[in-house]
């Protein structure tokens, strides 16, 4: 497991958990290794389990966030294991291959699955990988952008081979995760400081009560 540190941390307690999801051979592992180690191997084999790297990611303003980056297997036979890896995720980077339309269609299924398992709490970003192969593109760029906007995500174009767009994709995703957590924490603190409402009962003295209407004799 690879670790690095930053000047100050925007997160306390456990590191933020970011998962990479997508079909096999879209380049998830290559993206992660390029980001963490600066390496690229065009003979990279498909991931057959899950691996995790810890990294401190700058998010601006002199702050950094401790993040655990999880790479998951994308092959169909490993899909049932997905929830074991992303069930506690704070954010997800969904990767597709711009030359493979089916890999983009699968991203839509991942979004549905994440929303079903984690609700609206998880922050989602989508990366169209292999832009070094733009001439072989089979995924409509405008359609990808429209879909990403429809789910409240941010779309990035990346190349594990050249390194293009990868730092920006991770940094933006982590910034959004930290911002969402800060907003949620601020809301929670505001609600906890709000005065407790006491029940106020109004009694109308102008109306005689049942007891007042009775005489003192039988």
CATH topology grouping: Rossmann fold
Q: Ends: how far apart?
A: 91 Å
CATH class reads: Alpha Beta
- Label the CATH architecture: 3-Layer(aba) Sandwich
Mean pLDDT equals 83
**How many domains, in number, for the residues?**
1
Sheet with most strands: strand arrangement: 2-3-1-4-5-6
Label this structure with key terms.
33% helix, disordered N terminus, Rossmann fold, 218 residues
Description:
With 218 residues, the protein is α/β, with parallel strands linked by helices. It has one domain (16-183): Rossmann fold, CATH 3.40.50.300. It contains five helices and six strands, in the order βαββαβαβαβα. It has helices at 28-37, 82-86, 101-118, 141-150, 166-193, and strands spanning 16-21, 50-60, 63-72, 91-97, 123-129, 154-157. Strands 2-3-1-4-5-6 form a six-stranded mixed β-sheet, sandwiched between helices. The radius of gyration is 26 Å and the shape is elongated. The model is unreliable at 1-8 (pLDDT under 50).
In a nutshell, what does this entry contain?
With 218 residues, the chain is of the alpha/beta class. The protein is 33% helix and 21% strand.
Write the layout of secondary structure elements.
Elements lengths: L15 E6 L6 H10 L12 E11 L2 E10 L9 H5 L4 E7 L3 H18 L4 E7 L11 H10 L3 E4 L8 H28 L25
Parallel strand pairs: 1-3, 1-4, 4-5, 5-6
Antiparallel strand pairs: 2-3
């Amino acid at each position: 497991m690879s670790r690095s540190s930053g000047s100050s941390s925007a997160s306390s307690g456990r590191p933020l958990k970011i998962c990479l999801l997508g079909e096999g051979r879209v380049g998830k592992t290559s993206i992660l290794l390029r980001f963490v180690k600066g390496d690229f191997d065009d003979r990279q084999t498909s991931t057959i389990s899950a691996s995790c790297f810890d990294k401190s990611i700058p998010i601006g303003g002199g702050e950094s966030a401790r993040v655990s980056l999880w790479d998951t297997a994308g092959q169909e036979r490993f899909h049932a294991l997905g929830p074991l890896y992303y069930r506690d995720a704070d954010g997800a980077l969904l990767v597709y291959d711009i030359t493979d339309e089916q890999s983009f269609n699968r991203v839509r299924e991942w979004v549905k699955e994440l929303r079903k398992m984690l609700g609206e709490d998880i922050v989602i970003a989508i990366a169209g990988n292999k832009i070094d192969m733009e001439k072989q593109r089979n995924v409509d760029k405008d359609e990808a952008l429209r879909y990403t906007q429809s789910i409240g995500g941010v779309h990035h174009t990346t190349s594990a081979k050249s390194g293009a767009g990868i730092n920006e994709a991770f940094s933006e995703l982590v910034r959004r995760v930290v911002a969402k957590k800060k907003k949620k924490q601020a809301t929670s603190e505001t609600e906890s400081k709000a005065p407790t409402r006491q029940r106020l009962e109004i009694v109308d003295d102008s109306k005689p009560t049942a007891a007042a209407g009775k005489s003192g004799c039988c």
